[in-house]
Fold ABC transporter ATP-binding protein.
Amino acid sequence: MSFGPLERLRASLAKDESFRVLQRLFLADGVKHWKGYATAFAFMGFMALSTGGMAWLMRDAVNSIFVHPTFWGVWGVALGVMALSVIKGASAYGQNITMARVGNRIVADNQKKAFDHLLGQEVSFYAIRHTAEISMRLQAGANAARDALNLVITSIGRDLLSLVVLVMVAVIQDPMLALVALVLMPAAVIGTRKLIKKAKNIFRKEFASGIKLSAISLEVIQGMRTVKAYTLEDTMRVRVHTYIDDVERAANKLVRTQAKSSPLMETLGGFAIGGVILYAGYNVMFAGKSPGEFFSVLTALLLAYEPAKRLARFNVDLAAHVIGAHMLFELLDMRAPEAEEKTLPDLPAGPGRVTFDQVEFGYRDNEKVLRGFDFVAEPGQTTALVGPSGGGKSTVISLIERFFTPSAGTVAIDGHDVTAFNRQSVRTHTALVSQDVYLFSGSVRENIGFGREGATEEEIVAAAKAAYAHDFIMGFEQGYDTPVGEHGAQLSGGQRQRIAIARAFLKNAPILLLDEATAALDSESEAEVQKALQKLQSSRTTIVIAHRLQTVVRADKICVVEQGRILESGRHDELMARRGRYYNFYQIQFAHEGEAGAEPQGEALLSA
Ligand SMILES: Nc1ncnc2c1ncn2[C@@H]1O[C@H](COP(=O)(O)OP(=O)(O)OP(=O)(O)O)[C@@H](O)[C@H]1O
């Protein structure tokens, strides 16, 4: 993976980043849901007060049983505790439900926001990032954003409030007694600080290993046929197991680090209770104090124990969520060039004349793929691009689609430089059938229907007929409702291609871009599709890339593309007469036919 998520996280998650991530979370999501959080907070307040009330009642419980036993006193205290427990139970329920609903909304909002942002990214964004990393940021990142907010709210609302109320109860009952216990509290919190840094590092490692694991397992599953065909099971097993072991190791390390806060708190908590028993026992036995206060403080302490423990671990737990939320924010902060240019005007409608003027382009610095590329594709004509593999033919189509932007020169449609218009409007002028047909899980009908929103059943069927797909679709038991499977896996290569052609026909755009669009068809289907294409071509600009010369001999213009330039162009006969590069290709491709100039029948590739 070229991305190196661990390195990026380490570099960007600076010391005060936790604070900034939290601040952003609160401003972006917390404020928006303030009503939900206020409700949850109110429930937590009730929880804290009822908990404090219980501790308070312990004094009366002990005194009314042991010191001044009265019938009504015992009843009063018992009913009081029951009433408080009902309030506490109801508040806990209310708080959980409210927090969960707000939390789920935050996850959904963030996922929508992140997904919309992904739609606005350029094609090149996806070329350098693994699907697993993007989906991890989308899933785990949104969950972490919710968990970070919830942790902060519950820590303040439930734990801190409970602690404050309980401490107040203890202080009111016996200030000295409370003091003895409270001295040890800050020590526990300070003790966990060292653990936080360690936990953050481990979290980062766990995330990075998790991304790698899901990336490699996704690849292996998707490439299972290749794995099996080349008996790569053992190689892949070793690879995947290594990553699983890494994740396991990080998880174990994390648990060890987190668990370190427990003995600290247990010990210090025990010391606090021991101190209270010593001091209070001495007071009750020798200073004549009532045991009620002692029990009340002890109960307050015991009840304070859990929230205090959680608060001491607060920072350690928060570290994980902050790192996750940071991953989501990183995704949201990346520029989304396609979304940003929505303000650019729409490309005006026109016949669809495509021109390239001295276009330079490279995917990598210092590696030019197109060099001074000049090219014209006229409306109503078919222009074919032929030439050796890697010459830059598909790149020409990518530039017309504005998947990439030239570094110099101009790509224009009807004389308008495409970079001056928003990409969506440029793409409404084009219908693309590329080498790798991509079908989405769903029915045949849906997949053809993606060509044009709101297309009628008749239009879909007409497009399928034109693409020579109707007959095989009707051969399926479920007809147009037949599921195509993941990436169209339940169809043959030729069937997938015909569905993609039907989709492009349905789009009915002025510029038709066919990149090896009929390569997977048998000769008979190809001849039929070619006939349909010829009908369509009369009213639009068609640009065809083909390795099989059979598909292009009738083109209005054939351009030979090699090393990012057009070497020669013209009609088949003209190029043959010129006896140049095209003539050579032709000779090589049809060498087995014996004589040059014979009608092409072979399917050899142009691989000179
Ligand atoms: N996304 C990409 N990132 C980096 N380099 C790329 C990318 N796509 C293509 N290239 C490189 O650009 C060059 C031209 O590729 P292109 O796909 O345009 O060639 P082509 O003529 O269509 O080849 P083919 O006939 O094999 O499909 C090749 O050297 C290829 O390695």
